[in-house]
Amino acid sequence: MSAKFLLSAAVLALGAGSAQADYTLHVLHINDFHSRIEPVNKFDSTCTEKDAAEDGCFGGVARVKAKIDELRDGIKAAGGNVIVLDAGDQSQGSLMFTTYRGVAEAEFMSAIAFDAMALGNHEFDNGPEGVLPFLDKAKTQILSGNLDVSQNNLLAGRVKKHTILEVGGEKIGIVSALATDTPETSSPGASVIFHDDIDSLKGDVAELEAAGVTKIIALTHVGYNRDQQIAAEVPGIDAIVGGHSHTLLSNTDEKAVGPYPTMVGAVPVVTAYAYSKYLGHLELTFDDAGVLKEAKGAPVLLDQSVTPDPVLEAKVKELAGPIEELKTKVVAETTAAIDGTRETCRAGECAMGNLVAEAMLDRVKAQGAQIAITNGGGLRAGIDAGPVTMGEVLTVLPFQNTLSTFTVTGEMVQQALENGVSQLEDGGGRFPQVAGMKYSFDPAAPVGSRISDVLVQEGDAFVPLDPAKSYLAVSNNYVRGGGDGYKMFINAANPYDFGPDLADVTAEYLMQNAPYTPFTDGRITRK
User: Fold this and answer.
1) What is the pLDDT of residues 204-236, one digit of tens each?
2) Measured in whole angstroms, how far is the alpha carbon of residue 462 from the centre of its chain?
């Protein structure tokens, strides 16, 4: 056999191999960080020294960086391709955000070197201006394809619809969308216009495809259920990396809502719980035509086996110093853990909902208030048994909402409760936790007719809600102002929205009732 023939055969083999070459992309991702710069415990509150001694701490920005660096460096060293994504809601949820107004989160994002971030609804909690720390300091591409910010002089031209990342010689398109009910769940203002997420994603995918991009990832902040709809209805998306619903996906954890990844046809959908407890790791393999051949991966638990990055850990301690005294101040004691989990408080009666609603009602009962309604989404953590610090209370109630009193009719109360149970399937934050009243709901009934058996306390008895009667109600200023869909309260009579901070009200109630025993008593029943 001649040398020429051997060389020709080798060239042919090389060409055949090139035609069949696969491209694998590793996607590292987090979502719904919610300012958990410091590690959290099993209740998603800031980790204490006692928790640390019992190996009960998870996450924190220093662990996030350490694990991302480890995986990213290892993948690159092996010749692989990797990107790092954030699916939104860096903001709101701890004293770090309250104190530093988003600057700390943005600076830590820069230190970790995310490739792109989707805007979350809570990025707007301090108004459009609250987004500026990320735009100014995060040093990453901030995306949201279904927002029109051209009418806002702070954000105009500064939020991208989509982007293209060059990774290993390939173009990776990133499209994005934010939940369209953000005006109800946060404060973007009238100048930020929301378009339909699916329509916007279709248009953005088409633009990228026209530019020759064959690998497209949707980085969304719309929730797990909506992500699955998007996967089914938007052609051209190869994978969805989502946030907003705080959903744990896993193939091994019994608490998981679904598998990681969740396949909708040929499209993998992933999300990685919240609060920095997990780092998602999705591995996508494409053929040479850009068609997805395989999707696999798992969330990585950031427990105490992950050694925190020492530089970021030192910076976190520096930032925590000025607020440590407030955080560690013991305000009360509990005889048992207070359940404030998202899964419980957005689906039925929960012990934390009872505590907060009772605290609200107790504060204004001398004014004649009869009922309290608060949104389950305003409760952001649980509290463990034993001493309760102000830091724990503020982790539960981080939004700086104030107590609000107003007069409503029984008919408005009925409407409010119907609104509260209208998003059960999506774990909506509007679920109504109450005091001074009882109600039942049927999740199988049509939206708008799920509520029944509404009773209001009068003296020692509970009597049926009277649609024509006026009641003095108490809530937080966010709900009273129409947040979470409670629009029926916007024009309520005699509103006063400037009461004390809800966290202070709750802390004082705990003090007055220490040691506090958490409870549920059947005030909310599911049919």
Assistant:
1) 999 999 999 999 999 999 999 999 999 999 999
2) 37
Which H, E and C letters describe 312-377, residue by residue? HHHHHHHHHHHHHHHHHCEEEEECCCECCCHHHHCCCCCHHHHHHHHHHHHHHHHHCCCEEEEEHH
Neighbours of 17 (CB within 10 A): 9
What's the token pair of residue 454?
């509404």
Task: Determine if the peptide bond prior to 261 is cis (ω within 30°).
Answer: yes
Distance of CA 526 to the CA centre of its chain: 25
Give the Cα separation of 131 and 126 in Å (integer). 8
Distance of CA 109 to the CA centre of its chain: 17
The 10s digit of each residue's pLDDT in 419-439 is 999 999 999 999 999 999 999
Residue 95, helix vs strand vs coil: helix
- What number of other Cβ atoms are within 10 A of residue 34's Cβ? 26
Beta strands 371-375; 461-464: pairing state: unpaired
Closest CA to 399 of 414, 381, 384: 381
CATH 3.60.21.10 holds for 22-318: yes
Query: What residues does each domain of the chain span?
Result: 22-318, 330-526
What's the predicted TM-score (pTM) here? Answer: 0.81
Instruction: Give the helix/strand (H/E) hosting 453.
Output: strand 451-458
- How far is residue 30 from each of residues 59, 77, 171, 277, 399, measured CA to CA in Å? 11, 22, 22, 9, 22
Q: With beta carbons less than 8 A apart as the criterion, state whether 140 and 83 touch.
A: no
Kindly give, in sequence order, each residue whose CB lies less than 8 Å from that of residue 343, ignoring residues fewer than 6 positions away.
Answer: 427
Residue 46 carries which side chain, given as an amino acid letter?
Answer: T
The domain over range 330-526 is classified in CATH as 3.40.1190.20? no
| Token pair 């089914």: residue | 232
- Decide: residue 249, CB within 10 A, 0-12 exposed, 13-18 middle, 19+ buried: buried
Phi, psi dihedral angles at 71 (to 5 degrees):
-70, -45
CA angle 475, 479, 483 (to 5 degrees): 175
